[in-house]
Amino acid sequence: MASAYAFGLISIAFILSLVLLAEGRNVRNEKCSKEVTVEGCDTVLLGWSFSPQHNKCVKGFACSAIANRFENESQCKKTCPPVSGRRPEIKVLVMWSCQFWLKYGGACQTRWYESYTDKNGRKCRLLYYTGCGAWKHKLYTFDFCRRRCRVYLGRRKKYPPGKPQ
């Protein structure tokens, strides 16, 4: 009796795994599930990464050493195709975050760089960037020396020549 019960459970598990494979749920490359981060790394680069929230590849900044960063969109799409039938889960509150726009705003944001010298005489770069859509007038900065981003609360800087106001 116990062996019949065990055989039944194994059969159900086998059939369920075939169904999940047919639906594409188990074929996701593990690179695609790696968290995209921009803080605490030595080099931040513009590139492509798979966003589980959007269920697609998006252009944005990411640490150069993470597995979920690709040089171009076609590499990302080939490695991390969207999961069919899944609706994107976009959390509106996260859109206020400087990290959100640094990671996912690459296709629509305005951005430029400036330099400054810190108190130790080290030359540092600042990336200024905006959000998109309703957040296109919000200004953020990423400090490459401090390796962190923040909402720019200082006096509103003029955009560099050729940039929209």
Can you walk through the features of this model?
- This protein is of the alpha+beta class and 165 residues long.
- The protein has one domain (30-151): Irregular (Factor Xa Inhibitor).
- It contains 3 helices and 6 strands; from the N terminus they run H-E-E-H-H-E-E-E-E.
- It has a 4-stranded antiparallel sheet, covered by helices on one side. Strands 1-2 form a two-stranded antiparallel ribbon.
- The chain is elongated and about 75 Å long.
Give a quick precis of the structure:
It comes from Rhipicephalus zambeziensis. The chain has 165 residues and is an alpha+beta fold.
Reading the helices and strands in chain order gives: HEEHHEEEE
User: What would you call the shape?
Assistant: elongated
Q: How many strands, which pairing sense, and closed or not: the largest β-sheet?
A: 4 strands, antiparallel
CATH superfamily: Pancreatic trypsin inhibitor Kunitz domain
Structural class: alpha+beta
Radius of gyration: 21 Å
* Contiguous uncertain segments of 5+ residues: 13-26
N/C terminus separation: 76 Å
Summarize model confidence as the mean pLDDT.
Answer: 75
The portion of residues forming beta strands comes to: 15-25%
- Top CATH class: Few Secondary Structures
Total number of beta strands: 6
Number of separate helices: 3
CATH topology: Factor Xa Inhibitor
**CATH architect. name:** Irregular
State the helical fraction. 10-25%
In total, the number of domains comes to 1
Q: How do the strands of the widest beta sheet line up side by side?
A: 3-4-5-6
